[in-house]
Amino acid sequence: MYQKNLLEYRPVADQNTIITNRKAFHDYHILDRFEAGIVLLGTEVKSIREHQVNFKDSFARITAGEVWLEGCSISPYSHGNIQNHETLRSRKLLLSRREISKLIGETTKSGLTIIPLKMYFRNGRVKIEIALAKGKRLYDKREKSRRKTIEREIEAEMKRR
Fold first, then answer.
1. Mean pLDDT of 41-66
2. From the CB of residue 78, how many other CB atoms can be counted at a distance below 10 Å?
3. Cystine design at 32: which of 10, 130, 132, 158 (Cβ 3.0–4.6 Å)?
4. Helices (H) and strands (E) in the chain, counts
5. Which of 11-20, 33-42, 50-59, 82-91 has the least mean pLDDT?
6. 36-71 CB burial, b ≥16 within 10 A, e <16
7. Contact 135, 113 (CB under 8 A)
8. Could you read off the pLDDT of 98-149 as tens digits, one per residue?
9. For residue 95, what is the enclosing H or E element?
10. Cα(161)–Cα(153) distance, rounded to whole angstroms?
């Protein structure tokens, strides 16, 4: 499901993908990925089907042995009624006990962050891909953009010859 790139692994786009957090690859070093289910209300699922989701400033937090998605904005359903959902509520992520204990160990000892990378449908259910990530420094971002520019120039020169 992943396409190998020289610099990093990127998910292959498919028709079931709802949203991808492209900024995460720019701001973080992705170390490990996990697939998690997510507990949603009916109106949230309907909004997600309309692609009314925003990952800006979202992250996952571990509290009392459970993983919660914070800051993920799912807009209210357009045809909803009084029982429409809150936009920025915390949503529980469904992971196995082993995965949760691994996340707890990695985030406490080495100061890593858990961020969402992608939301998609699998067998009619909403799944979210989360990642253990380490924040990039400004000079890392500059180095990556410089390398990208050099590669682009090399490819253009190869095409010209």
1. 89
2. 11
3. 132
4. 4, 11
5. 11-20
6. bebebbebbbbbbeeebbebeebbbebeeeebbbee
7. yes
8. 999 999 988 887 878 999 999 999 988 999 999 999 888 877 778 888 888 9
9. none
10. 13
